[in-house]
Amino acid sequence: MNKEKADEARERGNDCMKQGRATQAFFYYTEAIKLNPSDHRSYSNRSLAFLKIEQHYHALEDAKKAIQLKPNWPKGYFRKGEVEFRTGHYQDAVNSYEKAISLDESDLKLKSALEKAQEEVKKMKAAAIRIPFISIGIGFLIGILLTLADHYLTSKPSLEGYVKLAFVALFGMLGYCGSWMYFYVLTTYHDAMLQPPPEQNDADKKTDKSTDPETSKGKRTKPSQESAKKDKATGEARRRKKTEKT
């Protein structure tokens, strides 16, 4: 551990961030973390660098690490909230900002961030009510227009009586399903932004295999079985030699 060199690397990273060079800043912050892994500031700053280059999963992980190293530091929760806000997890961002404010009530930047997140939560709740009704209305409208077209623009209408109502109702249901699909895709997209990249998953799988007791057991027992077979063969050869001599 070399705190002086770590501080120097972190300051270089800060200079890069001021110049808008987030990628280069990331390397300096990583160097600072290697030199002093217990410094929460380096993780916090690297979280911001990751956020700038849209590496949201790593940005969130570094923010969590900063919180783990110093739980009473409001900036760690602010970093976490920034990642959550950027990825559309507005309620989570509200929770993080509120935690940060509870640790430092005088920070106006935190209060401003909280207000923005709360406003987005309100918009999402309003959209969750408004969009389904709009979608159903559009579905009904399309169904009515198609019914009118069938009635007035064809020589022999194919929709009669209650079939018309069922036809219009069907399009209303399709509109509702469309709104549900919209929210599902939106939520999936936001969640995917915080998923680990493929190379991270591969690395985790390799780590799991190397630490799997069954796999390790198999690796240990295989050589012992082979050696047992060799010992058995050697013993049989010796017995044959003794028999030939006698």
UniProtKB/TrEMBL annotation:
It is found in: Cytoplasm. GO terms for molecular function: Hsp90 protein binding. InterPro entries: TPR-like_helical_dom_sf, TPR_2, TPR_rpt. Residues 196-246 are annotated as: Disordered. Keywords: Cytoplasm, Membrane, Repeat, TPR repeat, Transmembrane, Transmembrane helix. One of its GO terms (cellular component) is cytoplasm. PROSITE patterns: TPR. TPR repeats lie at residues 6-39, 74-107. This is Hsp70-Hsp90 organizing protein 1-like. It comes from Acanthaster planci (Crown-of-thorns starfish).
